[in-house]
Backbone:
């Protein structure tokens, strides 16, 4: 790993177990040619880096 790729981990949601990926309530729905993302994240590690723009 040479540090050229950055990532963010966005699984934690309020009122849910942060390690249980089966219970994530955030959704992403393709409407026409745009994605509509609906949900709330509590903590996202790595997201403070401006190079992280993945949803």
Residues:
């Amino acid at each position: 790993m040479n540090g050229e790729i950055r990532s963010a981990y966005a699984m934690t949601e309020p009122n849910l177990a942060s390690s249980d990926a089966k219970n994530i309530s955030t959704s992403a729905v393709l409407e026409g040619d745009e994605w509509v993302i609906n949900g709330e994240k509590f903590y996202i590690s790595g997201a403070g880096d401006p190079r992280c723009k993945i949803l």
About this structure: The longest strand covers residues 27-31.
